[in-house]
Design a protein that fits this description.
The chain has 29 helices and 29 strands. With 931 residues, the chain is of the alpha/beta class. The strands form 7 sheets. A 9-stranded mixed beta sheet has the order 19-18-17-20-24-22-25-23-27. The chain has a 5-stranded mixed beta sheet with strand order 3-2-1-4-10. It has a 5-stranded parallel beta sheet with strand order 14-13-12-15-16, with helices on both faces. Strand 1, helix 7 and strand 2 form a beta-alpha-beta unit. Helix 1 packs across helix 4. The longest helix is centred in the first third of the chain and has 26 residues.
């Protein structure tokens, strides 16, 4: 207000009048004795007070003083108020109060008693008399505690307080705790402040928030009445709803934050208990509270109920729940906390990584969901001492219970149901998920609607195969909305709203927004997929090979985090409809999809046209996204055209290697030295240049390896190679009679694959362990003169083969009972064929055997072979028929018996019950073993 000096007033009277008018409004002048003496006394006192104030100000500005903690000057305030009473007469104070009332100013009362309001609690705690529900709820609570006790342990309050903590109540590591109270209409502020002021661990700050409250002035008056510089009042006419208090928490410099609803009146030991537990190594990365919820469990119809469904065990738990007699006497992990949250200030930031489902409600669930998703942080309800109310987080639980049970508005319940289902659908591992680990075969991921369409055939094959489970995840948002994905799959759009596992919408846009950076997308995909993989434990995650490379990297990282072996499978789009047999593999075989490494090893010299045909057929084949190295093995006499061909050949599926001999080695060395395994998962496909392959050759190899070699439930140690070719002759006997496997096995199934003791040299994949064994065997038995070879198989024309690596492999397989898997399709269609072109064997001068091309050249499979197999899939290993070297039906045990009987192996064994056993790492024979 303005101050104007009157000319007829003396200076001394004017100064006192000015003071009176400033502090008391329009005060009337009165005659006083010795006004100058009074003025001098007043000024002297003021000067002394200022000197004391300046001294303490200089002290607190000292570098030795930590200014991050706000000093307590309440004593100075009281001192000033005392001197004010002595210096300013009562009538002046009265004038000041009257003037304040006139201008509408607020007065700070000296005692909270004058302004405090208290919530009347005139109702009883609800108690259920529904025996069935009491049993359902208590049984579920007991199951939860038993699971948590076994999985990571639960502690009582005394056990928690006995744990080592980084925070010390009395020592130098006493934590700073900021308490945030959010008030709107409830009359509990004084009760909360009284409790906080009496805590066994003093708080650092209390922030009382009033956002859009009609009681703002009353709340401010209460805060001012406590006259504590540690307690601040923060208000806004705008209602920031439930998230505003967490946004304020971002500003604190304290170590820990305690956020309380207005219905929570904590016991006086709560800050001490909470801080101690938050300082333990086990619960440091956690959010702690006094009330929590366990979200719904899956029902028998595989759907999830509303969290408010009445008379349902699957609706979850509210903890503690006095209505059903459920108290918390051991710490329990919940899906989200209600009414109070105690956590480190650092963790608060996590709440705002993703845009919330809604700002209207659900901040409690969103906090727990984000903390688990991005920080692996759990949410825990602390136990209490039932005999000590000061250990309770809500010393008057009736208030919180009424808040929980009166929110029955259908629209709010629906929003919260949608929110927790969205969380579960994007990787939130709820207590149900932790207690009931799922196991599915495949989890598909599509980042666009086009990818959904491309993956659809394989997804439907999985879902339609008996005993198989498969779901699809879509990116959501602008990339691939769930409804559009459902339409592409010819599913009703309602699947996007059902609380049933089928399609998961990650809502990637909620995190990435309009960002042009790939980081938010990678983060959203990785964190959500990691959770979904943890919940559902898929054997494989399947996506297309040309998906965004950043998304592919996120999928790979998420798959690798699963300790239960989840494999990322990236399929070329054109291959997807060709590998529907994936759904027929056992769940145990699928994770091995990427284990094998199949390399192509071509033996060539001077048949450039033949080589060109082979390379064209290899390039036109279907692959599964694996790395497939290719190696060209050329002898010293290779011609110029071949060198140019292999040098310019582009191979997109893996590295290309060229190898050329200095000294001509001949066919035996050219083939046998063309490949050597680098590991037990390294397989060699050997191809001479006059061979041509089917577009499906690689898929046949992959399927056979997974079905018969990489399935832990299958034992077929005799299998040493996989043939691409189906023979038409019995080539090891002199007469070379015709052979048609389709006719021979039609009583089983005309197109069943079969096991044959004969290795194939016209397109076959050889296994690493047996190939090492073959190297050692050939080294011990190789002779230039075939007649000097000690192995002479009865009635086999292979005994006379000289320039043949295959002869030594036949000997070893015969002696040790090994077999090769052969295809068997109509008209002897095969995955490779031999064009019988002139070379080291065919048309050689010293070869007296005449070759009819029609006996060796077979048609290549040009259609999907899966439909031709028995029942559309590979038969069980136990159902595969087996034949010996001479194409006669013999059991696998019979094959070993024949080899043992011959008794011509490198070690002398019992020729009735034993064969040679080898060290598969070195291939060296080590002992005789019974079979």
């Amino acid at each position: 207000m303005g101050l104007v000096r009157k000319s007829h007033v003396r200076s001394g009277d004017y100064l006192e009048g000015m003071l009176n008018e400033y502090v008391g409004g329009k005060a009337k002048f009165k005659a006083h004795k010795s006004p100058s003496a009074r003025l001098v006394t007043a000024l002297t006192c003021l000067q002394f007070a200022f000197a004391v104030y300046a001294t303490f100000l200089l002290y607190y500005m000292s570098p030795a003083i930590d200014l991050r903690s706000k000093p307590d000057f309440t004593w100075a305030t009281r001192f000033a108020q005392h001197w004010k009473k002595l210096m300013i007469p009562a009538h002046v104070v009265n004038h000041y109060q009257e003037a304040s009332a006139v201008v509408g100013s607020e007065i700070t009362p000296f005692n909270p008693v004058e302004v405090c309001e208290h919530e009347k609690i005139d109702f009883e705690q609800k108690k259920s008399n529904d025996a069935q529900m009491i049993k359902l709820k208590t049984d579920l609570y007991r199951e939860v505690l038993e699971f948590q006790s076994k999985s990571f342990g639960t502690e009582t309050l005394s056990e928690l307080m006995a744990m080592k903590s980084k925070w010390d109540l009395k020592g130098p590591t006493r934590p700073k705790v900021t308490v945030i109270l959010n008030h709107f209409k409830r009359r509990t502020l004084c009760a909360q402040l009284d409790s906080l002021l009496n805590q066994t661990l003093p708080f650092h700050h209390v922030w009382v928030l009033s956002f859009g409250s009609p009681n703002e002035l009353t709340l401010k008056r209460i805060v001012d009445s406590y006259n504590d510089t540690r307690i601040s009042f923060i208000s806004s006419s705008y209602d920031f709803k439930y998230y505003g208090r967490f946004q304020m928490a971002l500003q604190t410099e304290a170590d820990l934050v305690y956020i309380l609803d207005d219905d929570m009146i904590p016991g006086t030991k709560m800050l001490q208990i909470l801080s101690h537990v938050a300082g333990t190594e086990k619960y440091m990365n956690s959010v702690l509270g006094s009330i929590g919820r366990i979200l719904p469990f899956r029902q028998k119809d595989y759907t999830f109920p509303s969290y408010r469904k009445f008379r349902s065990k699957e609706a979850g738990l509210y903890l503690p729940d006095p209505a059903y007699g459920i108290t918390v006497d051991k710490i329990v992990q919940v899906d989200f906390l209600s009414s109070s949250w105690f956590l480190s200030a650092e963790l608060i930031k996590t709440l705002f990584i993703e845009t919330p489902f809604t700002f209207l409600t659900g901040e409690d669930l969103h906090l727990s969901y984000q903390l688990q998703k991005y920080r692996d942080a759990g949410s825990f309800v602390l136990p209490v001492d039932p005999n000590d109310k000061e250990t309770w987080g809500d010393s008057e639980h009736r208030l919180a219970y009424v808040s929980e049970t009166t929110v029955i508005f259908k629209d709010i319940v629906q929003v919260r149901d949608d929110q927790w289902w969205k969380a579960l659908s994007t990787g939130y591992v709820t207590q149900w998920a932790a207690m009931n680990p799922q196991k599915i075969d495949a989890l598909f991921y599509a980042h666009s609607v086009k990818e959904v369409k491309d993956l659809a055939p394989l997804l439907e094959k999985f879902r339609s195969t008996v005993g198989k489970k498969a779901y699809i995840v879509v990116s959501g948002g602008k990339h691939c909305p769930c409804e559009d994905a459902a339409t592409a799959l010819k599913w009703p759009k309602s699947v996007c709203r059902e609380r049933r596992f089928k399609i998961f919408d990650l809502g990637v846009g909620a995190l990435s927004g309009i960002s042009k950076s790939e980081v938010p997308v990678v983060q959203a995909v990785y964190s959500s997929m990691r959770g979904l993989i943890k919940i559902h434990n898929p054997s494989v995650v399947i996506t297309v090979s040309d998906i965004d490379p950043h998304v592919k990297k996120a999928l790979k990282m998420a798959s690798e985090t699963n300790s239960n072996a989840t494999t990322l499978v990236v399929l070329p789009r054109a291959t997807v409809p060709k590998v529907l047999w994936m759904a027929d593999l056992r769940t145990t075989a699928l994770p091995n999809w990427n284990r094998m490494r199949i390399s192509i090893n071509i033996i060539t010299q001077n048949r450039v046209n033949s080589l060109t045909r082979l390379l064209r057929s290899l390039s036109n084949a279907f692959y599964t996204g694996d790395e497939v190295p290719i190696t060209f093995n050329m002898d010293s006499k290779v011609d110029e055209a071949t060198i140019k061909m292999v040098g310019s050949f582009d191979w997109p599926h893996g590295p290309k290697t060229l190898r050329r001999r200095i000294i001509q080695g001949g066919l035996i060395r050219a083939v046998s030295e063309s490949w050597y395994p680098a590991s037990d998962d390294d397989y060699g496909l050997l191809l001479e240049d006059d061979i041509e392959v089917s577009p499906y050759y690689y898929l046949w190899i992959k399927y056979a390896l997974l079905a018969y070699h990489y399935d832990p439930q299958v034992s077929l140690p005799e299998l040493s190679s996989i043939s691409l070719y189906t023979p038409r002759l019995v080539e090891v006997v002199k007469e070379r009679p015709k052979w048609n496997a389709t006719e021979v096995f039609k009583h089983i199934h005309p197109n069943t694959p079969y096991l044959h003791q004969l290795p194939c040299s016209w397109g076959a994949v050889f296994f690493p362990k047996q190939w090492r064994e073959f190297y050692v065997y050939m080294n011990m038995r190789f002779t230039e003169n075939a007649k000097e070879n000690p192995v002479q198989i009865p009635k086999s024309r292979t005994n006379g083969w000289q320039a043949s690596w295959k002869k030594f492999l036949i000997d070893m397989m015969y002696l040790r009972g090994y077999v090769s898997l052969y295809p068997n399709f109509p008209k002897q269609q095969s995955f490779s064929t031999n064009h019988m072109e002139p070379g080291a064997h065919i048309s050689a001068k010293d070869n007296v055997v005449k070759h009819d091309k029609t006996d060796f050249e077979v048609p290549l499979l040009k259609e999907d072979f899966r439909t031709l197999l028995p029942n559309g899939k590979m038969p069980p290993a136990s159902k595969l028929p087996s034949v010996n070297l001479f194409n006669q039906p013999v059991s696998l045990k019979g094959l070993k018996a024949a080899g043992a009987k011959l008794g011509q192996d490198v070690l002398r064994c019992n020729n009735v019950t034993e064969i040679v056993a080898v060290d598969h790492q070195t291939g060296l024979p080590i002992a005789c073993a019974k079979f």
